[in-house]
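Q: Can I see a sequence and its folded structure?
A: Here is a first one.
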Amino acid sequence: MIRSKVSKRYAKALLSLGMEEGRHQEYGKELQDFSAFYASRRELNQTISNPAFKLEDRREVLKALLGRSGYSDTIRNFLSLLLDKNRITAVGEISAHYEQLTDEVSGIVRAEVVVPRPLSGEAENKLGKALEQMTSKKVRMNVRQDKSIMGGIIVKIGDLVVDGSVKAQVEGIKESLKRGE
């Protein structure tokens, strides 16, 4: 929880800087790119996050890596700051928070959609348009399968949960029968 709060603060600070400079989208892409690279390179991860190595040596490794990256000076400085503050291991979480905050600023909401089997492209498009009408915002959907819901659909947008699954309906009927309704 504490790490999440700290990650959110770093993401907010970078977004604020990016908004001032008009480059918040670019910074988000660069941060996401580094985050994916860092997560996929176990040796790099262990080298620059390991306090057994001197901070100066870890800085040199990061500096050499970033020198060939083509990232903006702001992102290079940000990643160096994370290393100096011993927060480089949180770069993935910071990147995820940054993406969320960027969506909020851009008027985009995220929808978690659970279905029992894959949606056709047409059904997914219709659902997206319906959710956009319902929220009056652009919707970014993450559709996943869960065969346990049997049929129907579950949609989660922020705190709102719309459960139209067959499983939920069966549970509702069970509860009604138990109460004698």
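Q: Show me another, different protein.
A: A second, unrelated one:
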Amino acid sequence: MTQDEGTGWRPEEGERVEGKIIDLTRAWSDQGTGGWYPLVVLKKADGSIVNIHCFHHTLRTRLLDRQPKVGERLIVTFHGKRETRDGKRTVAIYSVETPDTQVDSASFWQSLGAATPAATPAQPVVDQLEIPEMDEDAPF
């Protein structure tokens, strides 16, 4: 099944769509400077096919963070549009749930600047609190 067989999801505030991902592809948008965005094709419990065009920043970002795979369940809720703090524009707010997705938490934290975890376990906290008898670096 492809996106050609489904209908585009045009949610109203508070609306949610849930289903199994049957295809992941990309689509082109001429908005702004133009560019590719994710297009997620879901099969709902009733058998209908829904295309989720993920061109809104919050939806795209949340899906990129979760990286759900074909065959996994996806739940997307549209919470409406909100004005930015500076009041200059509005943004579409979405939440994304991926109950079947295994998140690689190490990669997540490393993408935010965390160091690669040590191959050996860290010292137990108790050992870290012990004061050595002779500490030549002590300033006193």
